[in-house]
């Protein structure tokens, strides 16, 4: 299974467009959080999503594009396959 970070820069300043995007990404299996090796969950920075899947990068990109289409807006999308991640300053998800 591979982990991917997906960044989407949606061409909109309208809050409801981002709600549509977030909901469509969730339906397609993406999360707005990441879990550390010690099991602590953190929020990803704005415009970033996480997915762990057996699918390859091109399919992950297609899933992200599908979510963007539901907004009716254009977007820049970057899919990065992870071989490990390190971060600083991410906000904890309150459990």
Folded structure, characterized:
- With 95 residues, this protein is α+β, with helices and mostly antiparallel strands.
- The protein has one domain: 2-Layer Sandwich (Alpha-Beta Plaits).
- Helix content is 27%, strand content 31%.
- The chain has a 3-stranded antiparallel β-sheet.
- Helix 1 packs across helix 2.
- The longest helix is centred in the N-terminal third of the chain and has 13 residues.
- The mean pLDDT is 95.
The computed structural class is: alpha+beta
Taking pLDDT < 50 over at least 5 consecutive residues as the criterion, the unreliable ranges are none
The CATH top-level class label: Alpha Beta
CATH architecture: 2-Layer Sandwich
Shape: globular
- Computed Rg: 13 Å
Q: Helix and strand string, N-terminal first?
A: EHEEEHE
Query: How much strand content do the residues show?
Result: 25-35%
* Main sheet specs: 3 strands, antiparallel
What oligomeric state best describes the polypeptide chains here? single chain
| Overall pLDDT confidence | 95
Q: Enter the CATH topology name.
A: Alpha-Beta Plaits
What's the total helix number? 2
């Amino acid at each position: 299974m591979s982990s991917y970070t997906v960044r989407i820069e949606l061409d909109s300043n309208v809050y409801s467009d981002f709600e549509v995007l977030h909901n469509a990404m969730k339906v397609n299996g993406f999360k707005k959080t990441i879990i550390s090796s010690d099991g602590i969950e953190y929020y990803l920075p704005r415009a970033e999503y996480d997915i762990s899947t057996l699918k390859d990068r091109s399919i992950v990109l297609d899933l992200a594009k599908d979510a963007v289409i539901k907004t009716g807006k254009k977007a820049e999308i970057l899919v990065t396959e992870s071989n490990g991640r390190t971060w600083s300053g991410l906000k904890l998800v309150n459990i």
